[in-house]
Amino acid sequence: MAETGSRGNEGRGRLAVVVGGGAGIGAATCLALASYGWRVAVADINVEAAKSVAGQCGGDWYPIDIFDAASIEKAAADIEAKSGKIYGCVCAAAVFQDKKPPEDTPIEAFDRVIQGNVRGTYLVNVTFAKRMAANGGGAIVNFSSWSGQFSSPVHGYCSSKAAVNMLTESMAVEWGRSGVRVNAVTPGFVLVDRMVERLRVGGRYSVDLNSISPLNRIPAPSEMGEAVTFLLSDRASAVTGTNLAADAGVMAASAWTVYGGIPGPRAQKT
Ligand SMILES: NC(=O)c1ccc[n+]([C@@H]2O[C@H](COP(=O)([O-])OP(=O)(O)OC[C@H]3O[C@@H](n4cnc5c(N)ncnc54)[C@H](O)[C@@H]3O)[C@@H](O)[C@H]2O)c1
Predict the structure, then answer these.
(1) What is the pLDDT of residues 175-213, one digit of tens each?
(2) pLDDT tens track for 67-108
(3) CA 97 to ligand 1 center in whole angstroms
């Protein structure tokens, strides 16, 4: 694996695992990390997707299922055995939920979201943090969502992301003295393939999603990769237990509807 990426050697050839690295934000994060000189282990339940991303970023791929503690433990052990000390971990795998009234949502669907996003994130954090602690330190980034701070009609999902925020804080305190930093990135909406398809089909959202962002756009997955590489890097050496919003300002603007909405651009001087 290359130790210097197209954008330099900030990663210093350190090894980072991206759980859920086979698609969307996780895949973009793998590419971003490699471009900054990280070695990347792509872990995903979708093995073909993980293989493909590993091929693109010069990394290795590993099967993992965030519902299965043994599979997380096995992936961590296999990564260490093949590539050595793990310094970075990104938890980007998640379970999503259909928008349905709660009385029409089977409790099994609710349970699955909570299990995957809360228990799964917890298991990934503990499994990799204990290894990083034994190796002298590291950094973890969890993926939250603006749904973790603002309620939405995907009740299990938004509750699970609120829990990810608190897990991130508690893990940061738990492992801080062992040299492991733990942070979260909070997207608003991101133009992953899944989202592009939802927008194409329509029906889920009642407004143009650009209109709720002060920047008037939905970020690309690669922009989430930039936020992650910062938090994993030594540039963020004093940052732990925090939540970095990479949401194009959606959360900051959420109360502005009441005051007439987001102002338009100021006229430019010629
Ligand atoms: N895309 C958005 O608009 C958006 C917005 C807010 C938050 N997020 C968060 O960002 C993160 C990434 O989301 P995304 O949109 O890139 O998702 P995605 O569906 O594009 O990719 C998720 C990846 O996780 C893998 N995965 C699914 N279940 C798994 C399991 N049980 N074990 C291991 N891997 C599994 C999938 O195979 C896939 O490769 C998630 O935590 C999501 O909640 C995304």
Answers:
(1) 999 999 999 999 999 999 999 999 999 989 999 999 999
(2) 999 999 999 999 999 999 999 999 999 999 999 999 999 999
(3) 12
User: Is 259 an active-site residue?
Assistant: no
Q: Which of 122, 157, 205, 259 is labelled catalytic?
A: 157
Any ligand 1 atom below 6 A from CB of 256: no
What phi, psi does 221 have (nearest 5°)?
-55, -35
pLDDT at 1 over 50: no
Q: How far is the CA of 71 from the centre of ligand 1 (A)?
A: 18
Query: What Å distances lie between residue 112 and 9, 107, 169, CA to CA?
Result: 39, 9, 23
Name the CATH superfamily housing domain 15-253: NAD(P)-binding Rossmann-like Domain (3.40.50.720)
Residue burial 217-245, b: 16+ Cβ < 10 Å; e: rest:
ebbebbbbbbbbbbbbbeebeebbeebbb
d(CA 64, CA 28): 18
Is 17's C-beta closer than 6 angstroms to any atom of ligand 1?
no
What is the spatial distance between Cα 27 and Cα 16, in angstroms, rounded to a whole number? 13
Mutate to test the pocket of ligand 1, among 17, 145, 218 (most ligand atoms within 8 A of CB): 145
Domain boundaries, the chain: 15-253
**pTM (two decimals):** 0.97
End-to-end CA distance of the chain: give it in Å, rounded.
50
45 lines ligand 1 (CB under 6 A): yes
Q: CB count, 10 Å around CB of 157? A: 24
